[in-house]
Specification:
3 domains; 17% strand; 17 helices; Rossmann fold; 463 residues; 16 strands; alpha/beta; five-stranded antiparallel sheet
């Protein structure tokens, strides 16, 4: 078997991740880690089997048959391969909030079972069927008395500070996080947060004070920062539960226009019904199993798609308030919905060490879907952001070859608002030109007019 090292798995040389085709492996150096036989058969692992990625230890026979490196100092694990990978700067507020509470609950469960966690990277938590799941078994260690909380500062940078920035300062954390994939610098967070946060003990200790002390550190300074003090298990439990209580009370107020778009827009109930029927027929006739809903807003038409037979949906939107509503809508259901924040004119790029540590949105989701619905979206990109129609059609074709696209014409009030001072641009923004461009590489299956200014085009790339 030909193994390829996961490019993001270089920081922990004692637990390196490899992949081959649709399988995921982790090579563990025994004397630098805990007893994985004991961990995987422990009450802790059994209690959290739905919260930790499914894992097994490969037998000597498995290792030999797979042609993996055999060494008595090495143990090989095989993990379940997750369908989708999402990064913390692509999460909504409530997604990250749920991730943070999930981590603290897992930590408390580990302490109860004589284990500890040493890493609080938000990248270690993913979503499976819209529920958080922990993927880094290298983060678990045996519990030792009178040690510090190693993960505390990282937790504040990856979870606490971003949540506070959105909740208290009413600023989206995503672009701050993407600018520094280690998390949001506590000094920046402290400067952004309003005066009122100085009256919250957890915020003062974990953000403001820690930011101040970090700024005083030099290469010769010795300081006992919060989280560096040796603590007993009761103190660790108190800190984790205190953080959980504070985070549980955080909420994000909606501030965007688009968060109410599905309730207040130019469609009549009859138009909505007509549009929903076309989408439903597209799903049923094409037997779409996996769908990308590009510009999903609050997930209204994702729900229509689920009701029509789709099994898996990735919903993408730039408006975080609307996307957060979509996440919450499906959170309590059994439907497999993944909400991902993307500015589609500046999608997540290859990032990190050597530009390979975190993969771009395009690389992670290229050709992954049986179908796409792209509704009332094209004008925001092509008119609002001056992207040529040809480039738009080419780009969205990377994700699916079977597309239901809504075109909003220049007679629509929304397009008129976007096209102020863009008269030259509008010469090419026509339904006729769009269909001509589509036909260059695709076959138009059907066309439907919803309103006087809105049209649905179903086309496929059958090459």
């Amino acid at each position: 078997m030909n193994l390829e090292r996961e490019k993001s798995s270089f920081r922990d040389n004692k637990a390196t991740v490899f992949f081959s085709s649709d399988r995921i492996f982790r090579k563990i150096i025994k004397n630098l880690n805990i007893d994985y036989d004991k961990l995987l058969s422990s009450n802790f692992f059994k209690e959290n089997k739905n919260r930790i990625v499914s894992t097994k230890i490969l037998s000597s026979r498995d290792v030999h048959e797979l042609n993996l490196k055999e060494n008595e100092e090495i143990v090989w694990l095989e993990h379940e391969k997750l369908e989708n990978i999402i990064y913390p700067y692509e999460l909504t507020f409530d997604q990250l909030k749920d991730f943070s509470i999930f981590f603290l609950d897992l930590y408390l469960s580990a302490l109860k079972n004589s284990y500890d966690i040493i890493d609080a990277s938000a990248f270690n938590i993913q979503l499976k069927n819209n529920k958080p799941i922990f993927i880094d078994l290298g983060s678990f260690t045996d519990y030792r008395n009178e040690t510090n909380i190693i993960w505390l500062k990282q937790f504040c940078e990856n979870f606490f500070a971003p949540l506070l920035i959105k909740s208290k300062a009413k600023i989206n954390f995503n672009d701050f996080f993407r600018a520094n994939i280690e998390g949001i610098d506590l000094k920046i967070a402290s400067k952004i947060l309003p005066l009122s946060t100085w009256f919250n003990f957890n915020v003062v200790i974990n953000i403001h004070l820690q930011s101040y002390l970090n700024s005083k550190i030099s290469s010769s300074t010795k300081l006992n920062l919060p989280g560096k003090k040796n603590l007993n298990i009761r103190q660790k439990v108190f800190i984790a539960e205190s953080l959980k209580k504070t985070i549980s009370k955080l909420f994000a107020k909606k501030t965007s226009y688009w968060s109410s778009y599905s309730k207040v827009n130019s469609y009549s109930s009859e138009d909505y019904g007509k549009k929903s029927n076309i989408i439903s027929n597209f799903i049923k006739n094409e037997k779409v199993n996996s769908l990308i809903d590009l510009g999903c807003n609050d997930g209204y038409f994702s729900k229509v798609s689920f009701d029509s037979g789709v099994k898996k949906i990735v919903g993408v939107d730039y408006d975080l308030d609307s996307l957060n509503d979509a996440y919450l809508k499906f959170k309590q259901t059994s439907e497999n919905f993944l909400a991902i924040y993307q500015n589609f004119t500046n999608t997540s790029p290859d990032m990190g060490w050597m530009g390979e540590e975190r993969k771009s949105f395009l690389k992670r989701y290229k050709n992954k879907f049986d179908g796409m619905i792209c509704l009332a979206f094209i004008h925001h990109i092509c008119v609002g952001n001056n992207v040529p129609l040809e480039q738009f059609v080419d780009y969205i074709g990377n994700f699916s070859k079977n597309i239901l696209l809504e075109f909003v014409s220049d007679k629509d009030q929304m397009v008129k608002n976007l096209s102020v001072n863009k008269k030259n641009l509008m010469n090419n923004y026509t339904l006729e030109n769009l269909k001509k461009i589509i036909k260059n590489k695709n076959t138009i299956i059907s066309e439907n007019q919803i309103t006087a200014t809105r049209f649905l085009i179903h086309y496929k790339n059958e090459i």
